[in-house]
Amino acid sequence: MKAIAAADRNWGIGQGNKLLISIPADMRFFREKTTGHVVVMGRKTLESFPNGKPLKDRVNIVLTRDRSYSVKGAEIVHSVEELTELLEQYPSDEVYVIGGEQIYRQLLPLCDTAYITKIDYAYQADAFFPDLDADPAWEIAEESEEQTCFDIEYTFRTYVRR
């Protein structure tokens, strides 16, 4: 399983159930990586999408404690155990964890790769990705050249579990 996120200098990923910033190249990278694959998210992440609809051309799985929650076009699971059972039918390298904070924290121990768009700016954030730079279990395997979107600098990093 892989995680994919855009994180600022302090590993912030969101504020008020919205992304901190929308960088077109990051959105394209996300689409290229996840299209045709399985995406796992929490309820609030799904609800943050346009019209609260699942992402097209992907298998959408929502992990939520809300037993009455349902949404057309997504599979709903209520525990990590239920999720891992459902995921047995898919190759693990085709499964992407896409947020939010609680889901990343629950599922990162099951991931072997994390694709992080690292933004060199500190935003006001209320949701965070675990700091992989401070975690000895993770190392940077690859990092792109620095990119710029208007005045925001960022890189694409691939972290792998040691």
Explained architecture:
With 162 residues, this protein is of the alpha/beta class. It has a single domain, classed as Dihydrofolate Reductase, subunit A (3-Layer(aba) Sandwich). Helices cover 20% and strands 36% of the residues. It contains 4 helices and 12 strands, in the order βββαβαββαβαβββββ. Strands 1, 4, 5, 6, 7, 8, 10, 11 and 12 form a 9-stranded mixed beta sheet that branches. The longest helix has 11 residues. It is globular and about 45 Å long. The model has no long low-confidence stretch (mean pLDDT 97).
Write a concise keyword list for the protein shown above.
single chain; 162 residues; alpha/beta; Dihydrofolate Reductase, subunit A; 9-stranded mixed beta sheet; 3-stranded antiparallel beta sheet; 4 helices; 20% helix; globular
